[in-house]
Amino acid sequence: MKLTEQSFADSAVMYATAADTVAKNLQEAVRERGKAVFAVSGGKTPAPLFQLLSQMSLPWHLITVILVDERFVPDDHADSNAALVKQNLLQHEAKGATFLPMFLAGMDAEQCARHFDDQLRELGGIVDVAVLGMGDDGHTASWFPDCAQIHALIDPLNPRFCAVSEPTKAPHKRLTLTLPALLKSRLLALLITGENKKTVYREARQFAEPIEALPIRALLHQHRVPVHIFRA
Length: 232
Ligand SMILES: O=C(O)[C@H](O)[C@@H](O)[C@H](O)[C@H](O)COP(=O)(O)O
Known about the structure:
Blueprint: E1 3-7, H1 11-33, E2 36-40, H2 47-54, E3 63-67, E4 69-71, H3 81-88, E5 98-100, H4 109-122, E6 129-132, H5 150-153, E7 162-165, E8 174-177, H6 179-182, E9 187-192, H7 195-206, H8 217-220, E10 227-231
Parallel strand pairs: 1-10, 2-3, 2-6, 3-5, 6-9, 9-10
Antiparallel strand pairs: 4-8, 7-8
The structure holds 6-phosphogluconic acid (6PG).
Function: Hydrolysis of 6-phosphogluconolactone to 6-phosphogluconate.
Family: Belongs to the glucosamine/galactosamine-6-phosphate isomerase family. 6-phosphogluconolactonase subfamily.
Pathway: Carbohydrate degradation; pentose phosphate pathway; D-ribulose 5-phosphate from D-glucose 6-phosphate (oxidative stage): step 2/3
């Protein structure tokens, strides 16, 4: 298990520490590969991190920002993760980054997933750094316990990097990276905030099974890529 974690009494300190850790790993990726792929989650938790990163002087022109997952809505929809990333991350210094959206108008969800899968392969099939959140149900990305696709989404042998997820208890059909897409990363940075999520995290970390009941387990109990948990 390649897990490290830090707990913070002050969430502002957590976000500042996470920003420094993500920035360092992105700079290392660019030094080693001449470019970096940075995958970011949506939801409410990451926005303060994005705002800090947007002000940091990184080689953004060599960094491609992608989504860990997306609701199947256009970027003018209130629930769009692409909109969240454009408004909070792709500003200031980070305006120079390349952004690849998952949702494309005129395509159905499976077509968008296949198109994005192709784009990620053209980038080398490597996500260098990913920022992940977790829901109270133990989902991360769009690996929802209640979605029909959950087994395939967290299957380390899934040949797809991007697939469709259809949660029954969360709004919108989703597009999501699969577990294999994250298993070559330099760093997976997981942000856990609030007592409910900390309780779910502790259970997911303590017991590896049943993995589909708390899909975050797919990242916490693998031994291929480092996962750093930031808790506040
Ligand atoms: O599209 C999304 O909603 C996110 O990518 C999702 O995976 C998120 O990380 C969790 O749902 C936690 O969301 P909060 O940060 O809002 O609690």
